[in-house]
Specification:
87 residues; mainly alpha; Helix Hairpins; 3 helices; 0% strand; flat
């Protein structure tokens, strides 16, 4: 089980690096907010892979909190962008 989780973590790290580039370069606020949201979900995915790898379920509540925060952030950003388009 160690090899698949190592591959998954490596792929998540590569995806996070590419997403960080998008976060840095933009060009618009919407691009940056989507990249930040993607980074949160990639971090949550990495935490999930670590839970599978170690078998320690003590991190599951933290995983749930991170996903809820990422979802709430997505809703807030979507509303802010929607209101900005109307003005």
């Amino acid at each position: 089980m160690e090899v698949p989780t190592t591959v998954a973590l490596a792929l998540l790290a590569a995806a996070a690096a590419l997403t960080a580039v998008r976060l840095w370069r933009g060009p618009s606020l919407a691009d940056r907010m989507i990249a930040l949201d993607a980074l949160l979900f990639q971090g949550a995915s990495a935490l999930g892979v670590l839970v599978v790898r170690t078998g320690d379920t003590a991190l599951v509540p933290l995983l749930v909190v991170i996903v809820l925060i990422a979802f709430a952030g997505t809703v807030v950003v979507a509303r802010a962008l929607e209101n900005g388009e109307r003005e």
